[in-house]
Amino acid sequence: MAQDNPATESISPDASEDFLAADELDALRAERDELRDRFMRALADAENSRKRADRDRREAEQYGSTRLARDLLPVYDNLTRALDAASDETRTQASALIEGVELTLRELTNVMTKHGVTPISPAAGDQFDPQMHQAMFEAPVPGTKAGQIIQVMTQGFLLHDRLLRPAQVGVSSTPG
């Protein structure tokens, strides 16, 4: 009599189909997970690109006029020097001319301020700040401490929060 051996029994066709279906299901799940991961990464990249483009756009709006502003600073300096050079006698004799130069300088200042250009105006006795000032010379001056500003040669300017041009100053080298 032949005994039934479970090891020699063949697998029923339904069981093999279930086994293949489980493998296919696992493969599909793995593919789904991979596609979901790729989708999420692409979504994150797109969001990062959008944020970067937005930041670049804001920066271009705010600082795009840097070259023009730098080119206008010598005009400001020359108008200021012209007014500083005018003596009281000249002011009396050419009052209309002086008034015109003052109005032009005031208008230039207003336009620069409107576009975010603000002056850095150190005064004698202020402490030298290498972030905002450029030392043009050092000199020992009695009654001052080392690192104090002793003379302002030209104003500096900021464009919003960025340094456009440092203020040019003379600094005391007298030990305090």
Automatic annotation (TrEMBL):
Stretches with biased composition (Basic and acidic residues): 47-61
GO biological process: protein folding
GO MF term set: adenyl-nucleotide exchange factor activity; protein homodimerization activity; protein-folding chaperone binding; unfolded protein binding
Compartments, record wording: Cytoplasm
InterPro entries, A to Z: GrpE (IPR000740), GrpE_CC (IPR013805), GrpE_head (IPR009012)
Gene3D superfamilies, sorted: 3.90.20.20, Head domain of nucleotide exchange factor GrpE
Pfam families membership: GrpE
Primary location class: cytoplasm
Keyword list, A-Z: Chaperone, Cytoplasm, Stress response
Region (Disordered): 44-63
GO cellular component: cytoplasm
Function recorded in the entry: Participates actively in the response to hyperosmotic and heat shock by preventing the aggregation of stress-denatured proteins, in association with DnaK and GrpE. It is the nucleotide exchange factor for DnaK and may function as a thermosensor. Unfolded proteins bind initially to DnaJ; upon interaction with the DnaJ-bound protein, DnaK hydrolyzes its bound ATP, resulting in the formation of a stable complex. GrpE releases ADP from DnaK; ATP binding to DnaK triggers the release of the substrate protein, thus completing the reaction cycle.
Subunit structure: Homodimer.
Family to which the UniProt record says this protein belongs: Belongs to the GrpE family.
HAMAP family attached to this UniProt entry: GrpE
Protein name: Protein GrpE
Gene name per UniProt: grpE
